Amino acid sequence: MTEMNWDNFPEHLRPSKPPENKPHTFVLTEEEFREGNEGGLGYCVACGEEREDYTDPDAERCKCESCGQHQVYGLDNLLIMGHIDITE
C-alpha cells in the first residue's frame, strides 16, 4: 500500500500533523471549568495559549492567534481528550 501524497490537497483537507511536543494539559478548578465553559474559553494544545475569541465548548481545530496552528479546542473537547485536569 502506498502512502497518500497530501501535497495536492487544499490545506483544510489535509490531516493535521501531531504537535512536535507533547500536547499541553491545562489545570483548572471545577469552578474555573464551569465559568470558562460559559464564557467561551478555549486553549491551543500546540502552544498552550488561551484563545482570545469566544470558543464554543465543543469547538475543535480552531486557528490559534498565537502560533497559527488549528489546534484550539473548547473546554468540553479538551476534557474529553484528556487535556484538562480538574483540581479542588
Care to describe what's here?
- With 88 residues, the chain is α+β, with helices and mostly antiparallel strands.
- It has one domain.
- Helices cover 18% and strands 16% of the residues.
- The chain has 2 helices and 4 strands.
- The protein has helices at residues 30-39, 75-80; strands spanning 26-29, 42-44, 72-74, 84-87.
- The protein has a two-stranded parallel sheet with strand order 1-4.
- The radius of gyration is 15 Å and the shape is elongated.
- The protein starts with 25 loop residues before the first strand and ends with a strand.
- The mean pLDDT is 85.
Biggest sheet layout = 2 strands, parallel
- DSSP summary, beta strand count: 4
Radius of gyration: 15 Å
Straight-line distance between termini: 50 Å
Roughly how much helix do the residues carry, as a percent range? 10-25%
The general outline is elongated
How many domains would you count in the coordinates? 1
Largest sheet, order of strands side by side? 1-4
Order of helices and strands: EHEEHE
Relative strand content? 15-25%
Q: Structural class per helix/strand content?
A: alpha+beta
- Helix count, DSSP H or I runs of 4 or more residues: 2
Give the low-pLDDT segments. none
Q: Could you report the average pLDDT, rounded to the nearest whole number? A: 85
Write the layout of secondary structure elements.
Blueprint: E1 26-29, H1 30-39, E2 42-44, E3 72-74, H2 75-80, E4 84-87
Parallel strand pairs: 1-4
Antiparallel strand pairs: 2-3
